[in-house]
Design goal:
The protein has 492 residues and is an alpha+beta fold. The protein contains 18 helices and 24 strands. Helix 11 crosses helix 16.
Length: 492
């Protein structure tokens, strides 16, 4: 039996057909763009997601599509999809990396002082709940039309099945879920002047939630197969790599950077910006440390320095080894930061520029700065009791062995590579579809991904990187008081 995994990312929709033996029969993708109508805003039209999903699925071979017996969904978390009573989109979806709701976070916690206890997290502008308070204040006509609120992947589910449903791993990122109890919280919903009836039904990620509409099935060359609840992108990536037990985790070098640890209990640390969410399987939770700019920071540096060839840029950055002309120390807070600072007003910083600073030093500094942000996240997870037994590396940035070597050295942790880490999220969605269709047990399906290589810490780099990490950690405390919503230099 084969299953289809659909991964709704920020920059693309990816699709994978997974055979019952775990091999990928076919993969495809369709690009997406992000609209930034104002500084700090980040939006997409949900209807574009649906167009891209159809494009990605129809790229898959027709013969492989005909064999699909279940579908799983995964996607970018925290996005606010607002629908009216006719299930029409009211306004563009506000995305996870949008910072407009920064002021609403304080209001939310004032309205619901128990929010960190209930949700395991402090309010952050990227989460869904503060976005709804922003809409209520700034766009009251839109707020008045809201009949339903969905997360991005669940808008696709609505188009696929007609059902309003979500999974617990994705829903936990809304701030409307009692994460320990694994259910909607009427108290946090009321703080946003919303009701449970406006929320989708909650399911564990491996549960079926509906059936593919016959019209869509005919268009895609399938039968009306079940659609699994699925997962938020990070939980799905963990399922794709088989990371479901305590201490198993990954680092993801995608648009944002994530350090993910699976666990068998709820372990929050809201004071340090740790995300404590439900995992995509029953009775499991996970912790995440998140830096908002990872591969996106590298893209910014390449544009700034005029590099056209990323491989040439990374090779040149590696040649700065020895630091005769030291790279600048970089704070990668281009769109604010989550773990450990929870500071939407934080800005990117290049410290230590000199006449000798060139394009190669700039790129090397950015690579290091992202690694240092991961080290801060590792520290915050440890303070919440998280321990690392195995750490995979996934995401587009994991293609760079130099970047992974820097990261392994900074974290003092070997990084495990698998042959298909870039598609781990779509694979996880397809695995959840296998579970929903009864194709096997969790133990049979959620096996650990085979390790194709291990990136070890480099002892020759450790001393210099440790010294520069010390400087990195001194910069934020000295600068953060300069960043405020009223600062004339503040870009957010």
């Amino acid at each position: 039996m084969s299953t289809l995994g659909i991964d709704l990312g920020t920059s693309a929709v990816k699709a994978m057909i997974l055979e019952d033996d775990g091999t990928a029969a076919a993969q495809s993708s369709a690009p997406l763009t992000v609209a930034r109508p104002r500084p700090g805003w980040s939006e997409q039209d949900p209807r574009d997601w649906w167009t891209a999903t159809n494009e990605a699925v129809l790229q898959l071979p027709a013969a492989a599509r005909a064999q699909v017996r279940a579908i799983g969904l995964a996607g970018q978390m925290h996005g606010a999809v607002l629908l009216d009573a006719a299930a029409e989109v009211i306004r563009p979806a506000i995305l996870w990396n949008d910072s407009r709701a920064a002021r609403a976070c304080a209001e939310l916690e004032a309205r619901c002082p128990a929010l960190p206890r209930i949700t395991g997290n402090h309010a952050m502008p990227g989460f869904t709940a503060p976005k709804l308070l922003w809409v209520r204040e700034q766009e009251p006509a839109h707020f008045a039309q809201i009949d339903r609120v969905l997360l991005p992947k669940d808008y696709l589910r609505l188009r696929l099945t007609g059902d309003y449903a979500t999974d617990l791993s994705d829903a936990a990122g809304t701030l409307w879920v009692d994460v320990a109890a694994r259910g909607w919280s009427d108290e946090t919903l009321a703080a946003c002047e919303l009701e449970r009836r406006q929320m989708p039904a909650l399911f564990e990620g491996s549960a079926p939630t509906g059936t593919l509409r016959p019209t869509i099935a005919k268009r895609w060359g399938m039968t009306p197969v079940p659609v699994a609840a699925g997962a938020g992108d990070n939980a799905a990536g963990a399922i794709g790599c088989g990371l479901v037990h305590d201490g198993e985790g990954f680092v993801s070098l995608g648009t944002s950077g994530v350090l993910f640890l699976a666990g068998d209990h709820f372990a929050p640390n809201p004071a340090r910006g740790v995300h404590a969410f439900c995992h995509a399987l029953p009775g499991r939770w996970h912790q995440m440390a998140v830096t908002l700019s990872a591969a996106s920071a590298l893209d910014w540096a390449l544009r700034l320095a005029g590099w056209q060839d990323i491989e040439a840029a990374l090779t040149a950055a590696q040649k700065t080894l020895g630091y005769e002309a030291a790279p600048p120390v970089f704070l990668p807070y281009l769109t604010g930061e989550r773990t450990p600072h929870n500071d939407p007003h934080a800005c990117g910083v290049l410290y230590g520029l000199s006449p000798e600073t060139g394009p190669a030093q700039l790129v090397q500094g950015v690579l290091e700065g992202v690694c240092f942000a991961f080290a801060d996240g590792q520290q915050a997870l440890a303070q919440a009791g998280g321990t690392i037994d195995a750490l995979y590396a996934i995401g587009g940035g994991a293609r760079s062995q130099w970047w992974l070597t820097l990261l392994a050295t900074v974290l003092q942790q070997p990084l495990l590579l698998t042959s298909d880490g870039e598609h781990a999220v779509a694979r996880g969605a397809a695995r959840l579809a296998q579970l929903a269709a009864g194709a096997g047990s969790e133990q049979d399906i959620c096996t650990r991904a085979p390790v194709t290589a291990t990136i070890e810490p480099d002892p020759t780099l450790h001393g210099a990187l440790a010294n520069r990490l010390t400087v990195f950690r001194q910069l934020y405390p000295q600068l953060h008081s300069l960043w405020s919503p009223d600062d004339a230099l503040q870009p957010h």
